[in-house]
């Protein structure tokens, strides 16, 4: 389990009976080489003492007292920022229904929630819920959990078992060793994208014709989501701009949902200058109906309906044109014929001024739209390309990132000298 060597884990303990398992959790983490700091909510102190956690973690325990942040040594007004920056992972264990509710609406009424809100866009946050089964199954808690998931947080457990309040059910915190194993898996990849901000577009866009119809394509979002996931697994700060798809947000990814190409362009433009790398994997509709034809369904008896189309902005081309702050820019190219896969893709790369274009032949069986796997030709220049053979999209994405990173770093070095 060497993945945990020197990893910095910030454990947020809230007031649940499962808090008595946290000393054991810290012990295993430290045995695996991780450094652990602990923050407690007020109620957590009723279930486990700060002194025990301090002795086992080797660090002063941070807690709130009468609304003040206390670390038993000194008070510091930016403690919640520093702690989030320090951590490779913020682990809320045990996490009560109350903590989940406060987190879901972005409250910062204690040190722990303030740390989480400040760190949310940049750090991995994992949550191990622990509560009574009815509280867990309530619509409110389930909604809160889905909100936290949609913000890229990981939910580990709960599991079934005897409940302290009697009976048997789903609500127990998973065991410390399971938490350690899940954490270890989180760090199985080299964190070679730490400090890199990457934006990925994914999925189709939908262009409204009337209240019932739209123009679109078959993209499922799987390829773009896999690139976002692989980037997050390697420690990058990931923004995923997604068209309408039915996929869960990958852990630790900041997702922005859009419908149309205009909306996608708008969201990309808002923060593109802050990005180091841009990957345009979305199948953006090139055209949209010139006008929204009707607030009502178009009458199906009409003999002639004319649909006039107008060009959508070319999102990636606009990025390719940027003079300053242009991120390292990678496009995708969906083609249907092997004989002109490379040449057509190269033309797109040149026209859009990209650093790389990834060509995929969507006519091949099990490739391209909706499939779990893909293969890619990475077209670097007219006569230089590399092939990534067929594999699952997540593995393809890791291979793609490994090819991109040295070139991105080389280019940034040149730009900075
Ligand atoms: O989502 P999946 O089901 O997993 O399928 C994956 C995929 C086949 C959609 C993906 O691998 C892929 O090939 N995506 C790009 C498809 C495409 O739109 O290719 P294109 O040749 O039309 O566009 C070239 C590049 O320009 C792309 O990076 C595209 O995002 C970008 N573009 C295109 C039009 C436009 N108006 N704005 C753009 O940014």
Automatic annotation (TrEMBL):
Gene Ontology molecular function terms on file: FMN binding; metal ion binding; phosphopantothenate--cysteine ligase activity; phosphopantothenoylcysteine decarboxylase activity
GO cellular component: phosphopantothenoylcysteine decarboxylase complex
Cofactor binding description: Binds 1 FMN per subunit.
Region (Phosphopantothenate--cysteine ligase): 198-417
GO biological process: coenzyme A biosynthetic process; pantothenate catabolic process
Domain DNA/pantothenate metabolism flavoprotein C-terminal: 193-405
Gene3D superfamilies per UniProt: CoaB-like (3.40.50.10300), Flavin prenyltransferase-like (3.40.50.1950)
Catalytic activity line of the entry: (R)-4'-phosphopantothenate + L-cysteine + CTP = N-[(R)-4-phosphopantothenoyl]-L-cysteine + CMP + diphosphate + H(+); N-[(R)-4-phosphopantothenoyl]-L-cysteine + H(+) = (R)-4'-phosphopantetheine + CO2
Region described as Phosphopantothenoylcysteine decarboxylase: spans on this chain: 1-197
Keywords, in A-Z order: Decarboxylase, Flavoprotein, FMN, Ligase, Lyase, Magnesium, Metal-binding, Multifunctional enzyme
Residues involved in CTP binding: 280-282, 286, 297, 313-316, 332, 348, 352
Residue ranges occupied by any Flavoprotein domain in the UniProt entry: 7-181
Superkingdom field: Bacteria
E.C. code: 4.1.1.36, 6.3.2.5
Record: active site: 165 (proton donor)
Family matches, as Pfam families: DFP (PF04127), Flavoprotein (PF02441)
Pathway: Cofactor biosynthesis; coenzyme A biosynthesis; CoA from (R)-pantothenate: step 2/5; Cofactor biosynthesis; coenzyme A biosynthesis; CoA from (R)-pantothenate: step 3/5
InterPro entries in alphabetical order: CoaB-like_sf, CoaBC, DNA/pantothenate-metab_flavo_C, Flavin_trans-like, Flavoprotein
Family: In the N-terminal section; belongs to the HFCD (homo-oligomeric flavin containing Cys decarboxylase) superfamily.
Function, as annotated: Catalyzes two sequential steps in the biosynthesis of coenzyme A. In the first step cysteine is conjugated to 4'-phosphopantothenate to form 4-phosphopantothenoylcysteine. In the second step the latter compound is decarboxylated to form 4'-phosphopantotheine.
Classification via NCBIfam families: coaBC_dfp
Protein name: Coenzyme A biosynthesis bifunctional protein CoaBC
Species: Candidatus Riesia pediculischaeffi
High-level lineage: Bacteria, Pseudomonadati, Pseudomonadota, Gammaproteobacteria, Enterobacterales
């Amino acid at each position: 389990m060497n993945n945990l060597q020197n990893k910095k884990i910030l454990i947020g303990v809230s007031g649940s009976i499962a808090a008595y398992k946290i000393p054991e959790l810290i012990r295993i983490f430290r045995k695996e080489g991780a450094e652990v700091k602990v923050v407690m909510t007020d109620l957590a102190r009723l279930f486990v003492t700060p002194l025990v956690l301090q002795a086992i973690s080797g660090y002063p325990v941070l807690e709130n007292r009468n609304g003040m942040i206390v670390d038993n040594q000194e008070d510091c007004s930016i403690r919640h920022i520093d702690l989030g920056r320090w951590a490779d992972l913020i682990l809320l264990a045990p996490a009560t229904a109350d903590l989940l509710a406060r987190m879901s609406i972005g409250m910062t009424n204690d040190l722990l929630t303030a740390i989480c809100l400040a760190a949310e866009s940049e750090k991995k946050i994992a949550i191990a819920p622990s509560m009574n089964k009815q509280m867990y199954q309530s619509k409110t808690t389930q909604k809160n959990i889905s909100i936290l998931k949609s913000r890229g947080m990981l939910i580990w457990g709960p599991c079934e078992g005897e409940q302290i309040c009697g009976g048997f059910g789903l609500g127990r915190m998973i065991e410390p060793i399971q938490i350690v194993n899940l954490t270890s898996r989180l760090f199985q990849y080299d964190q070679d994208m730490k400090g890199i901000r990457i934006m990925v577009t994914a999925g189709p866009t939908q262009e409204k014709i009337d209240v019932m119809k739209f123009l679109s394509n078959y993209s499922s979002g799987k390829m773009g989501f896999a690139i976002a996931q692989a980037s997050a697994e390697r420690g990058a700060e990931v923004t995923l701009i997604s068209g309408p798809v039915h996929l869960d947000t990958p852990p630790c990814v900041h997702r922005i949902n859009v419908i149309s190409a205009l909306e996608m362009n708008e969201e990309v433009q808002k923060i593109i200058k802050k990005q180091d790398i841009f990957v345009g994997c979305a199948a953006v509709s090139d055209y949209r109906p010139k006008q929204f034809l009707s607030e009502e369904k178009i009458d199906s008896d009409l003999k002639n309906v004319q649909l006039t189309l107008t060009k959508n902005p070319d999102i990636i081309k606009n990025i390719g044109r940027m003079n300053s702050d242009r991120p390292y820019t990678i496009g995708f190219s969906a083609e249907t014929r092997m004989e002109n896969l490379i040449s057509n893709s190269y033309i797109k790369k040149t026209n859009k001024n990209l650093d790389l274009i990834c060509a995929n032949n969507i006519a091949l069986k099990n490739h391209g739209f909706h499939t779990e796997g893909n293969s890619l030709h990475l077209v670097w220049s007219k006569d230089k390309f590399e092939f990534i053979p067929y594999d699952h999209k997540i593995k393809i994405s890791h291979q793609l990132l490994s090819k991109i990173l040295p070139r991105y770093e080389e280019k940034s070095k040149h730009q900075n000298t």
